[in-house]
Each structure stands twice: as structure tokens, then as C-alpha cells.
Amino acid sequence: MKAIILNMERYVDGVLLHKNLYKCQHGRPNRWRYRKVYDDNSSKMVAIKEVLTVSEANELAQELDALEIPASKTGYSRDFVTRYVAWEEKNNPSLKLKESWTNRKYAFYQFAEHFDDVRHITLHDLSEWWDDLTYNQQKLRHAALRKFFNWLMRKSYTTRLKYNPFTTADDLPRLIVKQKPKKQRAPCTPALFTQIREEAGKHGYECLQIAMDISRYTTLREGDICALRFDKNIVDGYLKVVVGKSEAQRGSVRAARLQWYLKDHPLLKSYIDRARKLSLKNRACPFVINHTPKHRSWNDNRTHTCQVTGDRLSRMFAECRGDSKTTFHEIRGLSSTLFKLSGYTDEQIQQIMAHEDKTTTQGYQNAEILPYQNVSMRIEQ
To answer: Is residue 174's pLDDT more than 60?
Structure first.
């Protein structure tokens, strides 16, 4: 990848770079830096951690610009958004640490770009804009904008609205969220699992092979698998896991807690033992999923150089899946299907997958390879 400088415009692979986007100073392909500009015209160069194509990096730079632009003197909506964001962060300092808050701030500024002056906005104006959004866009914005409009109306900034248009009350005209589209899954079949696993070996991703094996055996998500530690989760011969998503939804007390006695699960034990041997090569990494990266870089989400985060594991998987559209998460579906083929009931599989509803568990299974129920009833005449 070579950068070409022409009339102060910077190009990479023939694509014009965003004005605040720069190549990585070490020359690594698909790695970037972003120049963050502050209100006093000072600036700071920040490394972008993700591996991105030129087009993806340009889009990210545009998004970052939208978050950093100060309030416009003529754009009242942007001014109100800036004040609201400051108010929220003052009252809830922990918001600054959440990636979801960054996404919500970006959605606020996008809203301000569409509606220049929120003071005179009407339900009709909002409806036309709202109905053009996708289900996922509406889902991201609905609760956030409801809080934003509560703040606006409490301060009497909106003059043409009698109530919050994002209310959930059924007795008031309101903005309706679209029906959730049916999820299109690209199932991971046994043959595809083997193919990707072999490709992982060719890439030198032994950690990915171990993670795939553990996920297929336990149905655990990549986040839970990447969080496993030898000192905290392998205790007294057991593999013990508090399911992360369940804990986030139900709280620590009601969260799903699973354990496997490794003597009763020799195959699972072999995966753990292999991971332990691998950790000795990777600076005694305490995490079950460990890998020595080619380039050392600081990552706030890691506590050890050789720790593999969920995002990194997903990128490894994407490198090895070829033309397939399946994701690491679909190994849960393969595991669920294999349990079903082994004769376990949906209720039993639901328990290990920590699902609230049995239909969610069934939705993970690959219908093309599910077993048929044998019918013994017959009519004699």
C-alpha cells in the first residue's frame, strides 16, 4: 500500500483520504491514525485500533468528526445536543466509558444535522424522518431520543409539542418502532466447522481452534470464552462460568451459572490442557484463549499482552472462513444442533445456552440436519 501526495491531497490505493485521516506511522497495512481537533484549534493524533480498509477508515473519520465539531452558532439543534450530552455526562460520568454512549452521541448529532432547529419541530416532521429509518436505526435511537426530548420539554425548548413523541404510552399519538426483521442466519455446519478450523491452523491461530472447540462443546459465546482464566474459572477440577449476557440482563444473583466437572468431560479437559500448554509459549498468559500478536500495541480492553479479546477472535475467524458468511457466534447454533442430534431435549439445550425462551434455542438450530421423529403408529385397514 503506497500513499501518493498530490496538491496536498493524500491518496491510498487511489482513494482520497479524509482530511483528518493518516496512515499508520509504522507503515502497517490497513492501520490508521486520526487527527482529533479541539475547540482551541489544538490537535492530537490518535491511533485507530481496528484494522480497516481505506473506505471504512474514511467513514470512521467522518463519524469521529461529527462527534468533535463544537456547537454551531446557527444550528440550534446541535447546540441543544451539545448541552444535553454535557448534562448527561456530568450526571452519569460512567457513560464516557461505554461504547454504546459513543454510538448514541453520534445518533444525536445525526439527528441535529437533519433538524436544524428543534424548537419548532412537529410530530409530522418527526414522523417523516422516523419512518425512513431501518428497524436497527430506530432501536438505537428510540430510548435515547425519548430521554433527550424529556430534557428538552422540561426546559421548555420545544414549543410545538404537547408531549414526548417518543413516549411508549398507547393512549397518545406517537412514533411507532418497526417490527424486528427476521434474522437471516448463515449456519455453521459440521463440514464448515472442520474447514475453518483447519484454515485456522494454517494461519497459526491455535487459539482460534481451541476457542472453536470449547464453544462447540459448551455453547459459550466468544466473549465468555475469551474471558476464561485458568486461575478464576478452572477451580477444583471444574470449569465454572457465569454467562456474561445473562448476568447483564438479570444481574449477578439471577445470572446463569454453569459448571463442567472436567473428569466427566475428557474432551473438554483436553481443550483446556492444550490451552494451558499454549499459554506457556505465550508468556504464561492467564487467559485460556491466548496468542502472541505480531505487533505489540496498547489496548485498554486487555490486561495481558497475549490475551485475545472477543473482537480479535472474531477477526481471526473472519480471516479463516473464506467465502462463507458464517460468524463465530453460529458455532452456538452448531452446538445446539449437535446436542439435539444426540437426543437431548430443547429444554435441556435451552438451559445450557442460558436462553429465557425455548423458541430462541430452537431458532439457533440448523433445520437442514435436525433429526426426524420416528412414527410407529399405523392403520391396519
So the answer is: yes
> In this predicted model, what pLDDT tens digit does every residue of 349-363 receive, in sequence order?
999 999 988 888 988
pTM over cut 0.70: no
Domain extent listing, the chain: 3-68, 76-154, 190-369
SS (H, E, C) the chain: CCEEEECCEEEECCEECCCCEEECCCCCCCCEEEEEECCCCCEEEEEECCCCCHHHHHHHHHHHHHHHCCCCCCCHHHHHHHHHHHHHHHHCHHHHHCHHHHHHHHHHHHHHHHCCCHHHCCHHHHHHHHHCCCHHHHHHHHHHHHHHHHHHHHCCCCCCCCCCCCCCCCCCCCCCCCCCCCCCCCCCCHHHHHHHHHHHHHCCCHHHHHHHHHHHHHCCCHHHHHCCECCCCEECCEEEEECHHHHHHHCCCCCCEEEEEHHHCHHHHHHHHHHHHHHHHCCCCCECCECCCCCCCCCCCCCCCCECCHHHHHHHHHHHCCCCCCCCCHHHHHHHHHHHHCCCCHHHHHHHHCCCCHHHHHHHCCHHHCCCCCCCCCCCC
Is 190-369 a domain of CATH 1.10.510.10?
no
